[in-house]
Specification:
Number of domains of chain B: 2
Order of helices and strands of chain B: EHEEEEHEEEHHEEEHEHHHHEEEEHHH
Strand order of the largest sheet of chain B: 3-2-8-9-10-11-1-12
Oligomer: heterodimer
Structural class of chain B: alpha+beta
Helix content of chain A: 25-40%
Largest sheet of chain B: 8 strands, mixed
Strand content of chain A: 5-15%
Distance between the termini of chain A: 57 Å
Order of helices and strands of chain A: EHHEEHEHHEHHHHHHH
Shape of chain A: globular
Number of helices of chain A: 12
CATH class of the largest domain in chain A: Alpha Beta
Shape of chain B: globular
Largest interface: A-B, 43 and 48 residues
């Protein structure tokens, strides 16, 4: 039986999510035993041509060139899974969506005429059909393995979309908002990180994006009403790596 | 547990360590309240020095803060975010593993990990909560062997509350503040001219333990002091829940507009269910290794506030709205729990009020439903 072929693709991103795959040090050999890592330029320049059974796509669409390239990637991929906040929500670079990108280009680049960019940074799903989205900035390597593992065994990935609070409570971390008055996005944020920040007495800053049915308005009202955060910081809290995820976007606009 | 007829005794503050040592000598693993990062949690303890000495807690809806008491009380605080279910019904537990060989699959059940816990400082509301979970996990036909093994070995050292939080309402639920039974030993802390504990014996094991440590018989003044301590907790009781006819009020108000008001606030984050000492829902996760030769089944705490909880194949979630999920939780606690287990699912500990990140208050919601009984949306 031939092994399924895996490809890893990069769009506008920092490479952190695809590095999570290389970060699976203990599992990498057994992974290579089950799947043919056919196209992964971060790991090897030896590239086996497509089509591919599974494509992992990192990064957002920010240029006309990438807008065309993702269509080609989709055409070569039987299953396409997007990984990370850039690919699933547009990433930190989606902050441009709230401004006029031309203003940045003239400030940042000595020769703006060389820059060919889109007005917005958008998730992959805004351009092509996506079979599964794995959230996080960066993604959790155990969850990445779970996605690949479930693909190999033809089952649904066990990736819950409930709140970070459930992860806090299961690991025994008392709520930092209730006990210390720290503004925390845990109640509206997608689980997956294992509730790292509250375990170090920090509020969650939402790097896994909105959870299922996120009630951001109620949380924001409570945090503001109890003076845990300023209006200006509230805007910033919702406008980071998942700034353009619809629920966070809508909430941040309430605090403009 | 059967109550013994042993008369009350007194233990001096300095002999609490002798009590703990005697428990350890019996082979118990001591777990009890201790301060971690500004919160009283339940964890391994060894001596009285590990207890939250001199601390009290200020609790309100959505707020919990530790403050200094100004004395050296060992148990001068109320319940925190954790419940004893953390030990009896752990958040994550392996149920079985399976290995595939060439021609067969072999299943290996996990042997219940059952240390003999000594629970130090169990409050009356939590004794009732453990009993509620006993009904779920130790029923004749559907016992959970892991829970049962841990529960049957556990030693319960109760503490009668001498104070109450603003979120407490055990008096409304008839679960406290004094532990009437369900303990091995129960302490009431007296701080006056001397610092000591009035001890009641609940079981033969408790009596045997007491006999191993220095103690004296309690006199009338000691019992008066203990009663005054309980009275103080009663006077400080911060909340009330009128349970008169409440079961029926909830069952006839599924369409009450109040559910929409609370749903606007509810984050469906599941904190209330995680901190609740009676919430018992769990889910199972199956994992495989990459080669598909080894599988494991794990049980984890689940919550009726998640979408997955009522997910039906092909049909999405039955309780997709926030309203439906909050209504389910509260109606189960205060109404349908009676149908299912012949008891209230709420013991009045107040954890869900204090640890709701936006301060939703089950007593306030129940009162609002009572006031608006029968109202319906058009």
């Amino acid at each position: 039986m031939t092994k399924p072929k895996l490809a890893v693709w990069k769009f506008a991103s920092c490479d952190g999510c695809q590095l999570s795959l290389l970060d699976c040090e203990d599992e990498l050999l057994s992974l290579a035993g089950e799947i043919d890592i056919a196209n992964f330029r971060e790991a090897s320049r030896a590239v086996v041509e497509g089509p591919y059974d599974l494509s992992l796509v990192e990064g957002s669409i920010t240029t006309p060139h990438d807008r065309e390239r993702i269509v080609e990637v989709r055409a070569q991929s039987k299953y396409l899974v997007t990984i990370g906040a850039c690919a699933t929500a547009g990433g930190i670079q989606a902050l441009r969506n709230f401004k006029d990108v031309k203003d940045f280009i003239s400030i940042v680049y000595a020769h703006p005429e060389y820059i060919d960019t889109l007005e917005t940074s958008t998730p992959i799903a805004a351009h092509v059909h996506v079979d599964y989205e794995l959230h996080g900035c960066p993604i959790n390597k155990k969850q990445l393995l779970e996605v690949i593992n479930s693909f190999l065994h033809k089952r649904k990935p066990d990736i819950p979309s409930y709140s970070v609070c459930i992860e806090c409570k299961r690991r025994g971390t008392p709520c930092v908002t209730v006990s210390h008055g720290i503004a925390c996005l845990g109640p509206v944020t997608h689980a997956g990180c294992g509730a790292i920040c509250p375990a170090y007495n920090r509020g969650c800053y939402g790097c896994y994006g909105p959870k299922e049915t996120p009630n951001t308005e109620s949380l924001a009202r409570w945090l503001r009403g109890n003076e845990m955060i300023s209006e200006e910081d509230m805007l910033r809290l919702f406008r980071t790596f998942n700034a353009d995820a619809p629920a966070f976007k809508k909430e941040s606009e309430r605090h403009e | 547990m059967k109550k013994t007829d042993s008369p009350a005794a007194c233990i001096d503050r300095k002999d609490i360590d002798a009590l703990f040592a005697a428990l350890k000598a019996e082979g118990y693993a001591l777990v009890g309240p201790t301060v971690q990062n500004g919160v009283i949690v339940y964890d391994d303890i060894s001596t009285a020095g590990d207890l939250p000495i001199g601390w009290r807690d200020e609790q309100e809806a959505g707020t919990y803060r530790l403050k200094k008491r100004g004395d050296a009380a060992l148990f001068g605080y109320n319940v925190g975010p954790q419940a004893w279910k953390k030990f009896l019904f752990p958040p994550r537990e392996k149920l079985w593993t399976a290995d595939k060989t060439r021609h067969a699959i072999a299943f290996h059940p996990e042997t219940p990990d059952a240390p003999g816990y000594a629970f130090i400082g169990v409050r009356a509301c939590d004794i009732h909560a453990i009993r509620v979970q006993d009904k779920v996990f130790m029923s004749k036909n559907h016992a959970n062997p892991r829970y049962k093994a841990r529960r049957e070995k556990a030693f319960i050292l109760a503490v009668n509350c001498g104070q109450a939080a603003k979120t407490c309402f055990c008096m409304s639920m008839n679960t406290g503040p004094k532990a009437e039974d369900g303990f091995d030993l129960a302490l009431t802390e007296i701080i006056g001219d001397s610092h000591y504990f009035v001890v009641e014996t609940g079981t033969e094991q408790g009596k045997a333990l007491l006999d191993k440590i220095p103690h004296r018989a309690a006199n009338e003044d000691d019992l008066k002091s203990a009663a005054a301590c309980t009275d103080n907790a009663k006077n400080e009781m911060g909340r009330k829940l009128d349970t008169t006819g409440l079961k029926d009020i909830l069952s006839r108000n599924y369409e009450n507009p109040r559910w929409e008001i609370v749903a606007e606030r509810c984050l469906t984050c599941a904190n209330c269910t995680m901190v609740c000492p009676t919430c018992f829902c769990s889910t199972v996760e199956d994992t495989t290794d990459l080669a598909g030769n080894h599988a494991e089944r794990w049980q984890t705490w689940d919550s009726c506030f998640t979408m997955d909880f009522t997910h039906l194949h092909g049909g999405g979630s039955v309780r997709h709205s926030e309203k439906a999920r909050y209504r389910q939780w509260m109606t189960h606690k205060l109404s349908t729990w009676f149908d299912q287990f012949d008891t209230s699912g709420c013991v009045g500990c107040g954890r869900c009020i204090a640890w709701c990140p936006v301060g939703i208050d089950i007593t306030e919601e129940a009162a609002a439903l009572r006031t608006s009984d029968g109202e319906k949306n058009d």
